[in-house]
């Protein structure tokens, strides 16, 4: 098999910790009629990668690849027979249905976004999951608008840093929780108004103090069950709790009478299980609403660190340490 027909890729033969990640040589994928094959130059880590590696994540039925990685940036190297908008040689970034931890992966044509002039592959790879999630959760599900308020948990995460900037861009007051004093300082630098280190204070009490007893309109939560009761307590009348992660518990106790009497809403969201048409629509909204803001520098991807593909185990260990601020990127 010629070298142009194969690629290096990260595989997981037996689920486990970072040591389960190995580099192997695999056949390069062949694009379908409406797919691009992208020569990957950068791929971002996400928490679902950790779950998939450990065997705790069930792939959606439309997964293009069982390999890890859901957002990449690179150069188009081949296109399917029905593709008209893209040609080999163009620089693109976007969400993919798996396969991002490899030298080449498939991308649906409707999910591809041109890399802006002057952007690096690392900047581009750090953008789509964070900003698509922030827009879809805060604005589409949460209805966040100017003059309202939001609490962003895990404010120093890749998605958290995007949520802070998206909320500020629409004119909302932004509060946050983080895991360290350094992350607290950096979230304030992104435009947030106030926050707490979660091990040092009760965030619900802090929110009620900041809002003079009212509570916030929206909460962006990655924690799950462990924070459920406090999240509901921190919401205002008619407020929305947006569950976009379940890092600390699939179940939680709460006084449901408060949900009824205060007209609270609990909504969940994940991008990966969406249908292809829905993902294309998500990409279109991102491209129209946030790509101009990103190009103008009014919001930006926050990058913690980069690792060569050969050090993918170290990259996973770094994410699992919770020491990162922003996105962790693999460079190929």
Describe this structure in words.
The chain has 332 residues and is α/β, with parallel strands linked by helices. The chain folds into two domains: 3-127 and 272-331, Quinone Oxidoreductase, Chain A, domain 1, CATH 3.90.180; 130-268, 3-Layer(aba) Sandwich (Rossmann fold). Helices cover 29% and strands 27% of the residues. The protein has helices spanning 47-53, 121-125, 128-141, 158-169, 181-189, 203-210, 228-234, 256-261, 276-289, 291-296, 312-320, and strands at 6-12, 21-27, 35-44, 71-79, 91-95, 104-108, 112-114, 149-152, 173-178, 194-197, 216-221, 235-243, 265-268, 303-308, 327-331. The strands form three sheets. Strands 3, 4, 5, 6, 7, 14 and 15 form a seven-stranded mixed β-sheet that branches. Helix 4 (158-169) links the parallel strand 8 (149-152) and strand 9. The chain starts with 5 loop residues before the first strand and ends with a strand.
